[in-house]
Amino acid sequence: MSVSTTKKRLFCSRPFEHLNVATPAVPGQGGGERGGAFLCCTGWLPVSIGNLTTSSVAEVWDSENAREIRRSILDGSFRYCKRECPFLQTESGPVQVVDDVTDARMKEIIRDNLDVVTEGPRTLNAAFDVSCNLSCPSCRREHIIESGSQAEIIQLQKRLQDEAFGNLEWLTVSGSGDAFGSPFFVKWLRTLEVTKYPKLKLHIHTNAQLWTPQIWAKISPEVQARIVTAEISIDAATENTYVVNRRGGDWNILLENLQFISGLRSNGPLKYLKFDMVVQENNFLEMPAFAELGKRYGADRVQFTRLVNWGTFSEEELRQRSIHSQSHPRHNELIQVLHDPRMQHDIVSLGNLADLIADAGTLALEDDAGVESGAEIQSLTPILLTRDLQKTIQFYTAVLGFFCDSQNATWASLKRGSASFQLAVPRDLDKDTDLSFTGSFYFQTSNVDEFWETVKDQAKVCYGIKTFDYGMREFAVYDNNGYLLQFGERVSLPVLNSTKAKSSKRIASSTSTADA
Prior knowledge:
alpha/beta, about 20% strand, about 30% helix
């Protein structure tokens, strides 16, 4: 099924303007061989378009893989993209509704259905050196400085300068290690002749441990002036958590350097400053304090993201850390944290955690009236009675796209996505049971308009697709037994009350030229 709907077609500019040159495969980093080229970060779009150690920028930029990925955007399927992408989840940054695209070149690409981009990339992520001064558990298992790979790294730097910098508007250093922790990237910053590239601006991604006044002074004023955006990975709001999540880092040095960087934001050259936290079991309670940290040091954006396994965790350790998972025993505590007033500040972005707000919208955060018990209710499975099991299975599989994963003569189990239920033929003692049901079954879905188009002529309609003032776009049909089935998708309303406006601020993703 397409990501885009018949009513709301989406477009992502990344594959048409962005080049990510990736790292070698090392513990905690993933990726392929050094110089692997991608049209987005490898976490969200892992299909390679070539390798710059053996091919030119022009050859990889318009390779068959690159063109195929672009076609998947133009046809609305996004079939090579992972749904966990924070931009795709929140329809922000490079992901927009087609009708909202204003960039002249992107509008031309959409209009003419172009999968070849002749002018080369506008933005480049230099992620081909994993050297870093820290060894954060969410990123790597050990401290890495690529001292033995100098020739390869410098060769890639030269190729990119010679072949890609002419059209380049943004250079990110570094998307794989640390801008100041890599001796090769630091030297690149010190020696880059930016006057040759009048359009070029720089985005620095760092843990800030080495971003000191002394290091900054060694970068030429011409390069300093081009460093206009920065992203600081911190992952904590207290010293005890910081030394665990940013292994090798010093909390007091961080705060001292943040004070210096805050001055660069206030007085220039920085025009945009973002703080990052990868949310996990040992830091989620610090999220509101992290938002306050961002405000204190003048951050334009405080970005929260889900934990991703880059190969550093076992399956069990990942489960223990993944607080965003609904199966995590402390997940409801995270939902409560997301509703903290400090999380409603304009600078806060929940990125790919935003859907947790929507998913929890109908759940009670606290059980003030429940009977205390040592038992924990782990799931709820509806069982629908039917006189004609096979006809009902046919309806749900052929019309609604469910999958029958198990059945016998009197019972069946059906699933689609995270929704599941069972069918059963009435037992003898139920033979006179009226199969009517006074309630309804409500399915939250994506692409509800497209789903409506596939269902409306195959089922008895209760009401057609429309948007309601409680923020859901939905329709309802009856199954072959007469059960009422509602299908809805959360949408943004044109006019929001104050409460919903605050919520929209929380779920707005980071939007800056550095992220574009």
